[in-house]
What does this fold into?
Amino acid sequence: MKDSTGPEMSGTISPLHESVRHRLHPEYVEFYNRHLISIPPAHLQPIAVSRAGSPIMAGGSNPLPVGQIQDYSIRRQSTTGPDVLVRAFTPDGPPPSPAGWPALLYFHGGGFVFGNINTENTVCTHMCMRAQCVVITADYR
It folds into this structure.
């Protein structure tokens, strides 16, 4: 497989498709070929790998450090089944006065296949620290 500059590429797993490569900015094509081309797409990974809690998307990163991460178990009121696990990410430092931290309730995607409470740690810590708010996410399937 040749990239946009012409040299032969080896070890490619997910090359850019010929029908779109010419539409992309050359700087992005270079970035993609350097950092992402060897990462298997999420839909080609075994489900167990995707559910393990590591970044499942190409270009994913590790979670940011936050002030506190707490897990809570919430008992169902109207349905039967196990308790619902909820995770709260709190920014570092004292809460703003007088109202405290704003809160964001985040429901992960994943098509009811990939996502779980562990796969969302990276996005939740980034939202927590960048927006300076408590992020709450739930484990559901």
Q: What stands out?
A: Residues 68-138 form one domain. Strands lie at 68-74, 84-90, 103-106, 134-138.
